[in-house]
Amino acid sequence: MIDSVSERGVIFVNEVFSGIQGEGALVGERQVFLRLSGCNIRCVYCDQPEALVKAPGIARLECRAGTRRWDEVRSPIPIERVVGVVDRLWRDLPHHSVSLTGGEPLMQAGRMERMLELMTVAGQRISLETNGTLASQLKKVLRWIDYVSMDLKLTSVDAAGVSLDLHRQFIEACEGPRLSIKVVIGAGTDVNELARALELVESLRSDVEVFLQPVTPFGSVTQAPDPGLVLSLHEAALRVHPRTRVVPQCHKLIQQL
Ligand code: SF4
């Protein structure tokens, strides 16, 4: 749904904190995470169920970077306040970038425009984590984004039913930022579906790095892919798109948020 002009002064937030990026191209970097509420799809392995609905609720804001002491406030939150919280954490210690995550941040692309403008003026690099399905919304904020980590969804893993054509539109729209792509793989991954997805990436952007991410069991997903399957999926991916690596969710290995 398109936000009205009066709604754009506030944004639905789940949490804001300073943490260690555990996935993909920026793994290990310190970031300010701005987790927005609302997602347009439902993946069976989603580990952020509390961030799936864009509706009034309670957001938690870390008081000082890395302390895990929180203020709780009502969401939606005025844009200027969100920018102030991010800026305070950013200044507590050197950060690589601000990670816009969720949920699906692009659900609120209209509300993000002014916020991202202010963050960019403050000198903050912006990294977008997205499910790669909302190309028209991406175009609204593209000028402020430095990095994009796009999920490429496999129905045999997430059961979300995202079409490859939606991902095609997104990749084609993503001109400017440094793009990388993450593909969650699970015990039931269809190797042919994986190969078709990476053929699409190779045909559009052979330069882009792809990260195969073995699923971390959560909720109804109780099984990770076994070591032999990870090797064979990696082999199948490399034969189509040589710039493919395997990186698990490192933040979970070290018990970070
Ligand atoms: S796209 Fe991300 S936030 Fe949305 S349901 Fe899937 S894993 Fe969860």
Going by CATH, the architecture would be Alpha-Beta Barrel
Structural class based on helices, strands and sheet pairing: alpha/beta
H and E string: EEEEEEHEHEHEHHEHEHEH
Query: Please, what is the average pLDDT?
Result: 96
CATH class: Alpha Beta
Uncertain parts: none
Percent range of helical residues: 25-40%
Task: Estimate the global geometry from the Cα principal axes.
Answer: globular
Strand coverage percent: 15-25%
| Full CATH superfamily name | Aldolase class I
Largest sheet: 10 strands, mixed
The CA-CA distance between the termini, in Å, is 30 Å
Bound molecules: iron/sulfur cluster
**CATH topology assignment:** TIM Barrel
- Using DSSP, what is the number of strands? 12
Could you tell me the radius of gyration in angstroms? 18 Å
DSSP helix count?
A: 8
Any idea how many domains? Answer: 1
Explain what you see.
By secondary structure, the protein is α/β, with parallel strands linked by helices. The protein has one domain: TIM Barrel. 31% of the residues lie in helices and 25% in strands. A ten-stranded mixed beta sheet has the order 5-4-2-3-7-8-9-10-11-12, covered by helices on one side. Strands 1-6 form a two-stranded antiparallel ribbon. α2 packs parallel to α3 (135-141) and α3 runs parallel beside α5 (164-173). The longest helix is centred in the first third of the chain and has 14 residues, at 79-92. The two termini are 30 Å apart. The mean pLDDT is 96. Iron/sulfur cluster (SF4) binds at residues 39, 41-43, 46, 48, 102-104, 131.
